[in-house]
Amino acid sequence: MENAIIVPDDVKAAMSVAGWDMEKEMVGQSTASSSFELPRVRIEHRDNGKHRVYIDTGESYLDGDSQEISIPGNKLSGVVFAEQSIRALWQEGAEVPLCSGIEGHPMGKEPLAHECKHCEHGVIGGSCKPKARLFLLAEIDGEVKPLVFALSPTSIKHWNAHKKKLQRSYLPVVAVNTTFELMDVKKGTYRWAEVKAGVDGIASKEMLMLAKEARDQFEEVTRVISSHDFADPGDTSVEPF
Question: For 230, which of 63, 215, 235, 237 could close a Cys bridge (C-beta 3.0–4.6 Å)?
Fold first, then answer.
């Protein structure tokens, strides 16, 4: 049964005969499951400098269903409707962080400090790794999808520079189509990709309405740090990205 091919249309037909409403069941299932099961923007760092950005949709039981969606030209464009500063401190070999925080406030039952800014591990270059977690809407294959993009520590400076330019232009982040492109960086024995942000016009009225709805819908998930936020290369090691 493990290797059986699952066809959604066949399942829907069988459920209908048995008196089930498949669409209604899917809505209930979505509500009960973790909201962090949103598709995630990830980066594949390559030693030859030909890095790749893609969307990780998560695993499924559908035969031949790929969990990766490639981004044409390694350039992603979307409307960022929410952002957060998150961080985590890892011990070697651990599956969960020793301590973590959102917007400078430690999470968990036994935080190492009352505030991240007062923690010895949270200083610049310290062992507690910061990230900028972005929630955005992007058109993928003709459909607007909510995505999560946790920018690495080395990419945060580019994101901050982008926001400063928008501020000088008197433009809120959500008002523009933000572009994300990869920049090859090599230092010593490490080679990685950093993410640079830019602007590709003003967000449409329709996209702004969807962004407002998305911000309200996903407000609750911004209060939690997921293990997926720190599942990229270098998140739990000494690598710079």
Answer: 235
Q: What is the pLDDT of residue 13?
A: 82
Residue 186: strand, helix, or coil: strand
First to last CA, the chain: 41
**Quick one: CA dihedral 167, 169, 175, 178, positive or negative?**
negative
CB-based burial of residue 78 (10 Å sphere; 0-12 exposed, 13-18 middle, 19+ buried)? buried
Sequence-separated contacts (24+) of 133-136 with Cβ below 8 Å: 133/83, 133/84, 133/85, 133/86, 133/229, 134/80, 134/82, 134/83, 134/159, 135/38, 135/80, 135/81, 135/82, 135/83, 135/214, 135/215, 135/218, 135/222, 136/78, 136/79, 136/80, 136/81, 136/178
SS3 70: strand
With CA atoms as reference, report the closest residue to 177 among 79, 48, 103: 79
pLDDT, block means (10 residues), the chain with 241 residues: 56 81 67 58 93 85 69 94 90 80 84 85 81 94 92 95 96 96 93 95 94 87 79 73 75
According to DSSP, the residues that pair with 56 across neighbouring strands are: 40, 68
The single residue listed with the structure tokens 């066809």 is 7
Residue 97: count of CB within 10 angstroms of its CB: 22
Give me the sign of the Cα torsion angle 225, 228, 229, 234: positive
Rounded CA separation 49/187 (Å): 12
Report the C-alpha gap between 102 and 229 in whole angstroms.
12
Please name every residue paired with 139 in a beta bridge, in sequence order, or none if there are none: 144
Helix 8-17 / helix 22-32 crossing angle, nearest 10 deg: 110
The predicted structure's pLDDT at residue 228 = 80
